[in-house]
Write a structure and sequence with these properties.
14-stranded antiparallel barrel, Porin, mainly beta
Length: 420
Amino acid sequence: MRIFLTATAGLFFGAMAWAGSYLGVRDWGDPVLMSGARCAAMGGTGLARGKSASDFFLNPAALNFIDRGAMSLSGGVHFLTEKSVASSSQTMFEEDYFFGLDEFSCVWPVKKEFFWVGFGIKPVLEFYYQGALTGYEVDDSVSFQHSIDGKGCVWSGFLGVGYGVSSHLSVGLVYENRFGRETLNIERSDVGSDMFLSAREKAGYSAHVLKAGMHWRINDQVNVGAVCQPGYRMTREYDLSFLSDTRGVDTWNSPWFWGVGLSYLSKGNHDAELKAEITKIYWSQAGINGGSIGLKPIFKEFSSLRVFGSTGSVIRPYRDVMVIGLGIEHFLSDQWSLRYGMALCPFRGDPQVELTGFSVGAGRQLSPSWQWSFAYEFRKRDYVGDDVFYPSDRRRDEAFQRMLLSWEYFFENIRNEPNR
């Protein structure tokens, strides 16, 4: 996630980008529900009828269409725009962007269409905090200055297998080793009182995750895929320097989730594929150190001292959510395809916040061995502040855009027909 803070006349506002999170100061991780440009262009769908190596991360059982080794690499640029409106009707705008790797995946059939293995690496949670906050007196003199700077990433190194029980039914299992680091620096200085506060936090993340999948090829046109990921524990070991040095460990209890996807391939002069998916995430089971959801230690310390002028954090109970994704792919020719989709993702911490996304993209098969995919996503949500960084009298309207490019290479030239 990326957070950018700026302010004038004692007011401040923020902007944030996602690799799977909302309202980042209290978030500890999201299940990653999309991988690669084809999946992104089709509303995040990918559980049924997988065709790309990047789909292995979503459902290891869905690749019984793959009959040759494949490698996928995806990356792109993220843009964000935020409009912030205060109760005084004052409106502010902020923009930012950053680049990121989306996935690197390899899949290899050991016995064609009956047994395959896959591995790769993928960022599952990103942290980018940059910003400044300045307060002014009536005479326009500076009264205080705040700054925040931080970065980090949690990666998933994954390894899995898929097995075709029959020509119609397959199952799969993925093991993830999640690891990463995060650094955060926050400072505040009050000009009149000569007060200066500084906080430094370094943290390391680690977790072990299992995900099971199944895929049922009913016929050449209809396919069903499903996944289930049990809840897991992520450990966050941190060193905090604020007034005194503190070392500690936080344990995040992740919720479990399941997802079901349907794929229907319509045959005609130009084939088309329709995908629909639902994913249920049981956020009500999430917690920190055996209790309810809370802030990271560095934010907790600053919030308790009202460093940012807030009245303290309002921790909202988490609720279970249902994520819906729809996608369509039109095969314009043996080489070109057009894709588009939409997704709806309610926010787990506030029933008034929903993320709505629309996407479009294209695919081009350059040769029997090479193909590329492009996706453009536009997502939007609005919410009110939580009195930690974002005042509760301000409503934010956020727009998140991403342009993603995927390259895929097939190792064995077994077939020459288009990958449909």
